[in-house]
Amino acid sequence: MKKQSGFTLIELVVAMAVLGLIMGAMVHLFGSSVTSLHVGARQEVVYEEARLLMNELKTTLRYADKDSIKYPEPDVLTYSGTMWDRHMDISQGNNKAYNIRVEWQDAENGLKRLKVTRETDGKQETTLFPTDSANSVFKEGSQFPITPEEIMVNGSSIVMYKIVLPLQYMLNGKMQTQTLETKVVPSKEEVTETPEEKMRREYMEILNIGLKLDKSEAFTQKERDIYDKLCSYWGITNNGKYSWQFGSNTRIRAYIYEKIYQNLDPSISLDGVNGYFSPACFDFSSGNNVVIIHAKNPKWSDNWNTNYIYNSDDKKWRHLISDKGVTLNTDQFAPDKKPSWEDVKSVITGTGWEIVQEVKH
Q1: Which of the 8 DSSP states describes residue 145?
Q2: Domain that holds residue 84
Q3: Last residue of a domain, which of 165, 187, 209?
Q4: Where a domain ends, among 164, 187, 210?
Q5: Domain co-membership, 183 together with 207
Q6: H or E segment at 122?
Q7: Is the domain of 314 the same as that of 264?
Q8: pLDDT in tens for each of the 361 residues of the chain?
Q9: CB contact at 8 A, 56 and 102
Q10: Which residues contact 187 (CB under 8 A, 6 or more apart)?
Q11: For residue 128, what is the enclosing H or E element?
Q12: What does residue 37 show for φ and ψ, rounded to 5 degrees?
């Protein structure tokens, strides 16, 4: 009779013990991988928040009007600028004016967050960094993340702005800290603006101040400075209330020509036709409704009819070259319909209008 083969009890116990050790190691390895994955995901989210905010601050400061960059209060930065909003497809873009305010916001447990408010086209957008206040490195007494540094370039003094954004995330039960840092020098307006765009922006700034007064909205430091100058020039009381001058082309143009251009009317030649370029607005519901027009007389009245219009979207002058085209004048619109910029643009980009080939300032 043959002896039956098999495992003894001791062999089974040893095998189970070895299997348990192997399974335990695998569970531990798998658990560590999952933990690392979660930590990596949290780190990526916080880093992405910091990177996006860094790009926003760097880009807007890059195109900011240098004179608008102010620290009106401790640890509060405001600045304004104008920037093309479609860099990847500039033919479809618009030159957008914006105001930025960077300040502290109190968070939980004595921490602070950075609050960035951007206003453009009359709309406000707010970004908080970090989104989760528990990830904040800022606390009472922390240095403001944007600081000016004066440097010398070719014998000239230039103000450069340093942006420092610290971020943190949990790793192995401990908070880990990283820092993103960059520096930026604001550009000159003349580099990015045509003379027509510069005049349009200056006009829009005044209109937007009037809109803010009408809505009882707060000013940036630059807007406050302009408002004070307007009150002095127009002889009105600086009481923060809307005044009819903000809806008058004649009054706004008078201020721009006398105080900004020192009574030197900006001349221009379009395909050999000499004249001046001049701003106007007929729909005062938006600061964007400013039109730059070629005029034989820079002091022309509000009743206008012109064959040359500046398209501020593509920075090209348009000329009415055909009797079949629509001539722009205020009489063509209904009495209760004031032409907005979109109305004007729809006409000058239509039939009978062509781009001016030769422009001389």
Answers
A1: S
A2: 39-187
A3: 187
A4: 187
A5: no
A6: none
A7: yes
A8: 455 556 677 777 777 777 777 777 676 665 555 444 444 445 677 788 888 999 999 989 988 888 788 887 878 999 988 877 655 454 555 678 899 999 999 877 788 999 999 998 778 999 999 888 888 888 888 889 999 888 776 656 688 899 999 888 766 667 778 888 999 988 754 345 688 988 998 999 999 999 999 999 888 777 888 999 999 999 998 888 889 999 998 899 999 989 888 888 788 888 888 888 889 888 888 888 999 988 776 665 544 557 889 998 888 999 888 665 555 655 555 455 678 888 888 888 888 889 999 998 8
A9: no
A10: 62, 63
A11: strand 123-129
A12: -65, -45
Query: Is the bond leading into 72 cis (omega within 30 degrees of zero)?
Result: no
Tokens of 63: 């195109």
Q: Are residues 157 and 280 in the same domain?
A: no
Please check whether residue 359 is in contact with residue 311, taking contact to mean a CB–CB distance below 8 angstroms.
no
Residue 220 in domain = yes
On whether the CB atoms of residues 97 and 82 are closer than 8 A, the answer is: yes
Q: What is the three-class DSSP state of 316?
A: strand
Q: State the DSSP H helix or E strand holding residue 346, giving kind and residue range, or none if neither.
A: helix 341-348
Residue 33, burial from CB neighbour count under 10 angstroms (0-12, 13-18, 19+) = exposed
The one-letter amino acid at 115 = K
- Could you write out the DSSP letters of every residue in 61-76? HHTB-GGG-EEEETTE
Same domain, 203 and 106: no
Helices 195-215 and 221-234, axial angle in degrees (round to 10): 90
DSSP-derived letter for residue 236 is: -
Strand partners, 152: 157
